[in-house]
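anyone seen this seq b4? input:
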Amino acid sequence: MTGHLRHLDTDRAATLAALCETIVPGSACVEPVVYVDALMSAMSEPEREAVKQSIDALAEAAPGGADALREHAFTPAFLQVRALAIEAYYSDFKAPGAPGPSAYHEIDFYSPLAMRIDKDWSYLGVGG
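predicted toks r here
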């Protein structure tokens, strides 16, 4: 993982990385954990704790992939992590130093308007 994580310890970051890759296959190339961790800085302490608890609730199932997560599909923990994983990838985020490609390039989303956007993640405290 590039950069320094502010809210997630090593174990939670690894669990979240596995969850993101299972939920959004191929997303590891943009390092979605960096996005989620940065987003957590804008959350209140109870919201940050809720994210951590959601990751913890899915930790045992995370290494087992989609089959292991199936029983958690409609739980609040899974729904929260799923929303964060999808946002991290499909917002076209790419962590500084991540290999990429970003989602827009991967899915061939070359709308003229989308290509004019100069993505600035500084509001999340992520440079690059």
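The two ends are 14 Å apart (CA to CA). DSSP finds seven helices and no strands in the chain. kinda curious what u guys think
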